[in-house]
Design a protein that fits this description.
Elements lengths: L2 E5 L9 H6 L5 E5 L6 H10 L3 E5 L11 H10 L5 E10 L7 H18 L2 E7 L2 H11 L6 E3 L6 H9 L2 E5 L10 H8 L5 E3 L21 H12 L3 H15 L5
Parallel strand pairs: 1-2, 2-3, 3-4, 4-5, 5-6, 6-7, 7-8
Helix pairs in contact: 4-5, 8-9
The structure holds nickel (II) ion.
C-alpha cells in the first residue's frame, strides 16, 4: 500500500477528479488545502471516499487576505475525524517578502491550533527555511507531530528538522535529473524520516514530466527512494507507509 501524504484534488485541479481518485484504489491520499475556500471540498472528499484523509490550513500566500472567520472555520472543522492535520501552513518569501510579519503571525496562530487539537502540522516553506525552523522550534509543542512537505533545504537543515521530530515529505523533485541536494538527503539519512508525496497536480516525477501530476504517480517517488537507498521496493513501501500512518495518526 502507498500513501500520498500531500496532494491537491479539487474540481479546479482536475476535470476527471473521480478517475484520478480511482487510480489510487487500495492506496491512501491525504488531501491538503491551501486556500480557505477549499476546506468544504476537502471535507466532502473525506466523507465520500474511504481512502481519503485531509489536512486543512491557510497557506502563507493568503496572509494578507484571510479573515478571522477563515481561522474560526479551521477550528470548527479540525475536529472532523478524517482531518488529520493543519496544512499547508508556513512561510513563502519566494512569493513575497513584503509581509513577512503577517506570514509569521498566521503560521504561529495555526501552530497553536495544531498544539491545542493535537493534529499534525504540515509545513510549506519556500526561501524561508531559517525562519521556519526558528518558529517550529519555539512554538510547536513537544508532542505535536510535524511534516515538512516537499522538503527543499540542505542536508544540514534536514538533520536539524529531524532533531525536532519533523518528517520530510519527499516528492517528484527527487526524480529530476539535475536535482542533487534532495538525492544527497535521501541517500544519507535514515529512510524512517521520510514520507511519500506528489503535491499533485504539481511537480510531476520523471518519466512523466510535462504531464499533469496525480497521486498514483507517487510510485515513481517510492521507486527512486528504493533505488537510491538500495532497499527493495516492497520494503520501501512498507516503511514509508508505516511512518505516514504514525505521522498522521491514521485509523485505517
Ligand atoms: Ni501543496
Amino acid at each position: 500500500m502507498l500513501i500520498d501524504t500531500h496532494c491537491h484534488i479539487s474540481d479546479e485541479d482536475y476535470e476527471n477528479k473521480e478517475e484520478i481518485i480511482k487510480h489510487m484504489e487500495d492506496n491512501i491520499m491525504i488531501v491538503s488545502t491551501a486556500s480557505p475556500k477549499d476546506i468544504k471540498e476537502v471535507i466532502e472528499l473525506c466523507e465520500t471516499h474511504k481512502n481519503i484523509y485531509g489536512t486543512i490550513g491557510i497557506h502563507p500566500e493568503f496572509a494578507d487576505a484571510y479573515t478571522t472567520e477563515d481561522l474560526n472555520n479551521i477550528e470548527k472543522y479540525i475536529k472532523h475525524p478524517k482531518i488529520v492535520g493543519i496544512g499547508e501552513i508556513g512561510l513563502d518569501y519566494h512569493y513575497t517578502k513584503e509581509n513577512k510579519e503577517k506570514q509569521k503571525e498566521l503560521f504561529i496562530k495555526q501552530i497553536k491550533l495544531a498544539n491545542k487539537y493535537k493534529k499534525t502540522i504540515v509545513i510549506h516553506s519556500r526561501d524561508a527555511i531559517e525562519d521556519t525552523y526558528n518558529i517550529i522550534e519555539k512554538y510547536k509543542a513537544k508532542d505535536t507531530k510535524c511534516n515538512m512537505h516537499c522538503f527543499s533545504g540542505s542536508l544540514e537543515m534536514a538533520e536539524r528538522f529531524i532533531k525536532l521530530g519533523v518528517t520530510l515529505g519527499i516528492g517528484g523533485v527527487l526524480t529530476f535529473k539535475n536535482e542533487k541536494k534532495l538525492k544527497e538527503i535521501v541517500t544519507t539519512l535514515d529512510i524512517h524520516n521520510f514520507v511519500l508525496e506528489t503535491d499533485s497536480p504539481y511537480l510531476t516525477p520523471e518519466p512523466l514530466r510535462g504531464t499533469k501530476n496525480e497521486p498514483a504517480n507517487v510510485k515513481y517517488v517510492a521507486a527512486k527512494i528504493s533505488q537510491l537507498k538500495g532497499i527493495d521496493y516492497a520494503k520501501t513501501l512498507e516503511i514509508t507507509t508505516q511512518t505516514a500512518i504514525q505521522q498522521f495518526d491514521l485509523k485505517l
